[in-house]
Specification:
The chain has 264 residues and is of the alpha/beta class. It is built from 10 helices and 10 strands.
Length: 264
């Protein structure tokens, strides 16, 4: 479903601020894979997602989604393949629009816009059923402005919108990091539920090693723009946080010195 072949990305090349973000990165995901990604600051995690999403171009290498070469496809044309949830709950929704209007925008992705009535009664009934899955009471607040929702409610809604059209690839960029622990657990549980129900191919970046070990069928660790650890199945299930730190030390040849990861 996703293939990244020898991708390189350098920011500010030839200057004192030159930064090698991706250094020959290669990664292949089968349909239905749920991959968690961890690594220190500057490891290249978010840059990898941005390359896949087409936010910025690759310097060298190729990217394929479901067999199609999207390496030079612009972001807006690549969006039809993707669902994405960002770290900031304020990103991904329109704050001044109603909940049902946000869901209508998500459900019409890729469709021809017309002058027909905005939202039909049938659509609203469908949105109510969708929102019941969240168990946040939002099904009774369809006309509420999204800007009035809490961070957790808004992130849950963003997740629902990102997966509404069952994308070929779901990208989660630390989507629980800005939430309190209880809300973060709820959103992560909801993520698992939706991903497993719809068999979505998913990449989830996280700084929480426990979450990285608990969810998904595969875990990769990045360092200096490369993958230094790739485990799945029984090997992943047997790992502990201490094992993960030791494996990083062996694979990368250095200690994982990152406060956000270690405190998580």
């Amino acid at each position: 479903m996703l293939e990244i072949r020898e991708v390189y990305k350098v920011f500010n090349p030839g200057t004192v601020n030159e930064k090698v973000a991706l250094n020959g990165l290669s990664l292949s995901l089968k349909e239905g894979d749920f991959v968690t990604v961890i690594g220190g600051n500057g490891a290249g995690k978010s840059t990898m997602l941005n390359m896949v999403a087409g936010v910025c171009p690759v310097d060298n290498g190729r990217i394929y989604i479901d067999g199609e070469d999207v390496t030079h496809l612009p972001e807006h044309k690549r969006a039809k393949y993707l669902g994405r949830v960002f770290q900031d709950p304020m990103t991904g929704t329109a704050a001044t629009m109603q909940i049902d209007e946000n869901l209508a925008l998500a459900s019409r992705r890729g469709l021809l816009r017309t002058l027909k009535p905005g939202i039909t009664a049938r659509e609203r009934a469908g949105y109510k059923e969708l929102l019941k899955v969240l168990d946040l009471g939002l099904e009774n607040r369809l006309t509420a402005k999204v800007g009035l929702l809490s961070g957790g409610q808004r992130q849950a809604l963003t997740l629902l919108m990102a997966t509404l059209k069952k994308p070929k690839l779901l990208l989660l960029d630390e989507h629980t990091a800005a939430l309190d622990p209880k809300t973060a657990r709820k959103v992560l549980d909801l993520t698992e539920q939706i991903v497993n129900r719809d068999h979505l191919t998913t990449i989830m970046i996280t700084h929480n090693m426990s979450d990285a070990l608990r969810v998904g069928n595969r875990l990769i660790m990045m360092n200096n723009g490369k993958i230094v650890l790739d485990v799945s199945g029984e090997e992943k299930a047997r790992l502990t946080t201490a094992d993960l730190l030791e494996k990083f030390k062996i694979s990368a040849g250095e200690e994982l010195a990152n406060d956000r990861i270690l405190l998580s």
